[in-house]
Amino acid sequence: MILQFISRESSLILAVTPANMDLANSDALKMAKEVDPQGLRTIGVITKLDLMDEGTDARDVLENKLLPLRRGYIGVVNRSQKDIDGKKDIRAALAAERKFFLSHPAYRHMADRMGTPTSRSVAVTSVVSQQLTNHIRETLPSLRSKLQSQLLSLEKEVEEYKNFRPDDPTRKTKALLQMVQQFGVDFEKRIEGSGDQVDTLELSGGARINRIFHERFPFELVKMEFDEKDLRREISYAIKNIHGVRTGLFTPDLAFEAIVKKQVVKLKEPCLKCVDLVIQELINTVRQCTSKLGSYPRLREETERIVTTHIREREGKTKDQILLLIDIELSYINTNHEDFIGFANAQQRNTQANKKRAIPNQVIRRGWLTINNISIMKGGSKEYWFVLTAESLSWYKDEEVRAGKEGFGEGGMLRGRADPMGSPAACLFWGRNVYKDLRQIELACDSQEDVDSWKASFLRAGVYPEKDQTEAEDGAQENTFSMDPQLERQVETIRNLVDSYVGIINKSIRDLMPKTIMHLMINNTKDFIHSELLAYLYSSADQSSLMEESAEQAQRRDEMLRMYHALKEALNIIGDISTSTVSTPVPPPVDDTWLQSGAGAHSPPPQRRPSSILPPGRPPAVRGPTPGPPLIPIPAGGPSSSSSSSSSSSSSALLFAANNDPFSAPPQIPLRPARIPPGIPPGVPSRRPPAAPNRPTIIRSAEPSLLN
């Protein structure tokens, strides 16, 4: 708990340590050192000065000469347990403390900085108040800038609450209209795009739908690849079944139509999947827009429910329309299309295919792939830059396309499988050895989407999935009849016709799908929000129940408004404070490495020095010979001793000479240091001990006032 308060940069730390313990091991000073390593906020307070051993004092510590702190120390004397049990009041304790500092020879010269001139609390309070005032003046500029930044950040949130009137009967109606209109504007901006509040972290709303239209949907169409072997086998079956028992002389049109319709039906799955993806993005957009209605939970739930229900209704109509488009394509095979190659061109394509092989390879795809064959790659998997063309697959150590030593020829089969480490991978199997002891290489991608994309690219390059061994054997047996050259020519011709017409259908579907979804779903939803949502809200529930504010939101609003007004008031108060007053600068740094010496460190022993100044009104207690004159020279005209022996005079001379150096060791003389007189409550007559025999008691005229 202490660290919670002293860790604040705007606070001053009072490190209180008793005088009768080792200062170097003070827990208070060590804790202050942790949070204030430069000592800018730490003030030392030394207590129990009256309980130190006889002949010792904390003068060097209080003068900041021993174990120094940057802001120094303050000495105080508290009430003892005996004083508390004796019902000693505060005034008497303050008077005793004042008398202690004024009468003690080691502290009287600094009594104005200790518990004096009137009391301990006044001295500590005055010093702390002065330093706190200086500290506040130093921290005001940073505090003002911090408050201003907080106020600016709150103004954006408080703006919507400035016109909030709970007692206004029309408030709920106005708020409902405003929120529904704002919801429609936000939804349209997220779909159509806008220049304000642009999300720079991720795609959202219309941008994600556009990506579905022009990236994901074409990719799904490419994934609907057909097996070249199966396609040729189906074409040959269709031709033979149409001819029946007769031997056909010409290529039948019905075989072409049957194969085309079978391929067009396969387009339904990617088209319906595209609709599902767009619906999911629309629902996510609606949820993001309704997040601003969090102040009214019932209104948010109803708005989200109504709009989502409408989107689901439009989903059915949109899918029906898309299926209708595909049925329309199936209803009539237009072989007179301008992009259709026709029968003559299909036959010529076979001869042109050989000529195209002489043309340089067209690059189909480039990208990074990882080769996982441990036996090929020494040291584990490695990443290479792959270049896929219509005739070869090459890889390099970097992106520079150069003549590499490694590569494949044309032909092969592709099969996807799971990588042992869990990442998707693809294996290429070739008709000849890639390396000396291997007939395959294993390629890995970063994601399943990349694997699908590379598979589609390999399909474009003529690399098809590998069939099982049993299927391959069955196919080899079944394809024995296809060795007829005339049938082979017919199969190749229909194959070219199917490829041309399916390309036309794909082009048409890719163009009509975004238009259909935009018209039947997205634009219709925008019109519904602007024109019919408010009516549905009025009919779904009571207006007052819709606009019931949550308790959390009401508490948050009140707290925010309170904080906003408190910040404004704080800035006004700071603006009224005069910062031009001359303040005491922060003391210069001191050597406080003694605080870092660890728990085993010990402070130097307290200075043991004889009392150079006798307590006023009390003679020293002596043993043996009578002491000589006082330690401090008495001014001319003052009282002096009338009789003394030569031995006592010599002892006094030694004491006086020794006291010229305040830091010298005490002389070895049979002299008992003077005790500090106990505190005497006001009004109680003091009891003086009897004077030494044959020695008059010396009382100075100015000192009796200190005992009163």
Automatic annotation (TrEMBL):
Record GO terms (molecular function) = GTP binding; GTPase activity; microtubule binding
Keywords, ordered alphabetically: GTP-binding, Nucleotide-binding
Alphabetical list of SMART domains matching this protein: DYNc, GED
Any coiled-coil ranges, and where?
A: none
List compositional bias (Pro residues) regions by residue number.
664-693
Nucleus listed as a keyword? no
Q: Which GO terms describe its cellular component?
A: cytoplasm; microtubule; plasma membrane; presynapse
Q: Which CDD domains match?
A: DLP_1, PH_dynamin
Q: Which InterPro entries match?
A: Dynamin, Dynamin_GTPase, Dynamin_N, Dynamin_stalk, G_DYNAMIN_dom, GED, GED_dom, P-loop_NTPase
Region of interest called Disordered, as start-end residue ranges on this chain:
579-708
Q: Which residues form the GED domain?
A: 491-582
Membrane-spanning regions, if any? none
Compositionally skewed regions (Low complexity) per UniProt: 634-652
The residues covered by the Dynamin-type G domain are 1-141
The processes (GO biological process) annotated in the record are: receptor internalization; synaptic vesicle budding from presynaptic endocytic zone membrane
Its protein name is Dynamin 2
Gene encoding this polypeptide?
Answer: DNM2
